[in-house]
Amino acid sequence: MSAGQSQTAPTLYTVGGKQRQARTLSEREVDWYRFGQGLILEVEPDTGDTREVVSYVSPPDVCAPDDPAILFKGAALCGDEMYVCTPTEVLVYELPGFELRRYISLPAFNDLHHARPDSHGNLLVAVTGLDLVLAIDQANSISDYWSVAAGHNASHHIGSSVDFRLVASTKPHMAHPNQLFLIDDEPWVTRFEQRDAVSLRSPARRINIGCERVHDGYVDGGWVYFTTVDGRIAVASTTTLIVEDVLDLNEMSGTLLGDRHLGWCRGLYIDGPRAWVGFSRLRLSRVRANLSWVRWGFKPFAPTRIACYDLERRCLVHEVDLQRHGLDAIFSILPAS
Prior knowledge:
Blueprint: E1 12-19, H1 25-29, E2 35-44, E3 49-56, E4 75-78, E5 81-85, E6 90-94, E7 99-104, E8 112-117, E9 123-127, E10 132-136, E11 142-147, H2 154-158, E12 177-183, E13 186-191, E14 196-199, E15 206-208, E16 214-220, E17 223-228, E18 232-237, E19 243-248, H3 249-257, E20 264-271, E21 274-280, E22 305-310, E23 315-321, E24 329-335
Antiparallel strand pairs: 1-2, 1-24, 2-3, 4-5, 5-6, 6-7, 8-9, 9-10, 10-11, 12-13, 13-14, 14-15, 16-17, 17-18, 18-19, 20-21, 21-22, 22-23
């Protein structure tokens, strides 16, 4: 580990996707970023040793017919199970061997971003492409649903005869729900476009995060930590629902970042006084409106990686390059023990 990081780092799982090779010159010129494989890596941060534990390609009958996005998005741990989603599926793996225990794919699944169990035995699924959250029962049926965008009629999608798994894109999204989390047993979801988090049971209960667009919501003790895509961590009280602190990872990275763009910030694990944060390499082909915060200049793009920050000293202490191990985008960081 780098100087200043004394305690042993935990073994981590990193969840994301591998990019397809560009097939034409024009695709290479725009830094083509379509994904064709979901990957889960097991990482030993102290040594940098990394091994692939899951490589997954979605079956064609649950994907759009032309160049579908195939990758793992948000993941969650519960006991000896990992819940992970592709854009159109939820897979539940038994740990540590990653045997597939449960598989769910429903016509209402479009651009899923996260899945996790609630406190009542249901599975919560963030259906980003339809701006809603579903509750799935043990029979793999929809038992409840919530719209997360004002004026949005979720029942129109639930009752539709359309197989939304086969629809390539439903953008623009009104809310773009990303990450599900629980405060006690109350389910919440982050909303990318509104830069906030809202309670599914009582939408008036809201955490206004501000800053840039929001991805993760990670509860640790009496605090919930949020990542924003421009490289900040907002820390809110689970009692007052007010943001009490904002950590700027650009400033905290200091000279260890060098003259590089920090990257697309997404993926968070709080380990006591340390935060493990995921960064995906920026790509020119992303919608420029989503990258309005980037000061392009002539800075090189840092690779996809995980980075460890000391929250007490407010500094970067270690990074592990994951792009050289085939992970081109990272969505989740989870402890392996």
